Automatic annotation (TrEMBL):
Its EC number is 7.1.1.8. The lineage of its organism: Bacteria, Bacillati, Actinomycetota, Actinomycetes, Kitasatosporales. It comes from Kitasatospora purpeofusca. Its cofactor is heme. Keywords: Membrane, Transmembrane, Transmembrane helix. This is Cytochrome bc1 complex cytochrome b subunit. Residues 1-10 have a biased composition (Polar residues).
Amino acid sequence: MSRTSSTTSGAAKPASTRAKPANKWEQAADWTDGRLGIYSLAKTNLRKIFPDHWSFMLGEICLYTFIIILLTGVYLTLFFKPSMGEVIYQGSYVPLKGIPMSEAYASTVDISFEVRGGLLVRQIHHWAALVFVAAMFVHMMRVFFTGAFRKPREINWVFGFLLLVLGMFDGFFGYSLPDDLLSGTGIRFMEGAVLATPLIGTYVQMFLFGGEFPGHDIVPRFFTIHVLLIPGIMLGLLVAHLILVFYHKHTQWAGPGKTEKNVVGMPLMPVYMAKAGGFFFLVFGLIAAISAIASINPIWAYGPYRPDQVSTDAQPDWYMGFSEGLIRIMPGWEISLWGHTLNLGVAIPLMVLFPMVLVSIAAYPFIEGWITGDKREHHILDRPRNAPVRTALGAAWISLYLVLLAAGGNDLFATHLHLSINSVTYFVRVGMFVIPVLVFIITKRWCLGLQRRDKEKVLHGRETGVIKRLPHGEFVEVHAQLPQKDLHKLTAHEQIEPFELPAETDENGVARKANVIDRTRAKISRGFYGEGSQIPKPTSEEHHEITSGHGHH
Ligand code: HEM
Ligand code: HEM
């Protein structure tokens, strides 16, 4: 049975007025509460109501994979040596015996072959990182397509966005640590990006690497960033993210009894705590099973990093693939100014387009808020079809991301599908501009089609498949009325009016020209909510008029 949350908190009784503790445990609890005051905190929060839907589980997957990463990461730090000092390998992996390598690489090979459980923990750490970023993407999509980022959750969206970006970069720093041929190639790529930054590039490169590439400093520096700096910031952001989820209360789908002012669901304790505990072990178990079966990053097969070598099929982890794609499809433009070379072929994709693809995510709630001019709070979720332009923009963004990811693997497409790498590159160059537009158009039309279908269902009911012959010979299909619950669901959404410019003359007949910003806003707003962007939903009069008839059409 579902419950509705009350917003008032029951204040805790002062300790002196409470009944005397019955046993040692209660005494201990009283003692702790007297010092930390957690009784009232727990009382108000542990009974907090959360709505139920499978998609609200995605945030949990992010949380659990992050915990798994922290646990396994701590184990790895016990054995990993973040040093680029040279050693000669004398371990048990015969093919590498006698080869000079960095301590970082040697210690990662040792973690894999010498340390008890080391290889499994490494694999779990890496797999969990892949699932973590994927879960963040999907969780973000859920929040995006349902409009859960609207007021009052815009700041929490930005916290989430920062978690995503930091997670992606920390993953990059992580796979750069073992100093194998693949990670060295990744660092070389990053060095290229730094060097292509106009004016400050060479100075930043020298500062980062402590001299010429690769130098001796980059792995120890990345290590501190990877295990301390970024996870520390992420932990802080994560706590703030979850506190805000608590504070705002969770959004919910429209349904009978659900309003913008209540939350219908089950209490956190015991229902969700039990579910969450079980789910954590399920996620951990699944990742452990994958890690035990599917080998990831077998650094012993790549060999130690040498600046004069590149491993074939060198690919970053999937979430960074789009940045690689941007660089692979960019023409190698270069210009010389006052004796300085400006490498546009690297600077444009990595300094301009890469941040743009990401920052567009962070900015979206604010852009939509500005277009609608809506200052109200929203706690009831949108069905994606009822916000066709937003849904189409989200789908177009995903398609751009996937096209760029494909570009990052242009060599793999070429070799596996027996294509010329140039054809793949040209296809992607065109596809990058064309595919998102096509996806936008198709998705928007699809949403409008679904809205029409919903309208049809509300007005004419569900097709029963029963064909009836009328006395005068006509055949009709009997339609059954939808249950009240479904009618509510299909008509609960509100339809936003596009923003209109004020009249061109004021009340005294004096011309009042709208400024460029307002004119742009009105134009975009018409694109979002104008005639071609939503199907007017059925009114109750229309519904009444049609359904008061014979029940078949
Ligand atoms: C470390 C990564 C993250 C963790 C552990 C996390 C965790 C959670 C959890 C447990 C919830 C409540 C359950 C749910 O709705 O799924 C939630 C809600 C939310 N998350 Fe995240 N999240 C993360 C990343 C993100 C990202 C990348 C975004 C978006 C860019 C985001 C935006 C939000 C928003 C706006 C809500 C409130 C949704 C609502 O009330 O419907 N989160 N998050
Ligand atoms: C969001 C957080 C994190 C992500 C995405 C992440 C990801 C990664 C990845 C992909 C690797 C390469 C693994 C491999 O060798 O195949 C790695 C290595 C490593 N990570 Fe993390 N990590 C994170 C947090 C942490 C934390 C908090 C610690 C320590 C407390 C840690 C410790 C290490 C160590 C010591 C290595 C090098 C050993 C090795 O490569 O096996 N990581 N990390």
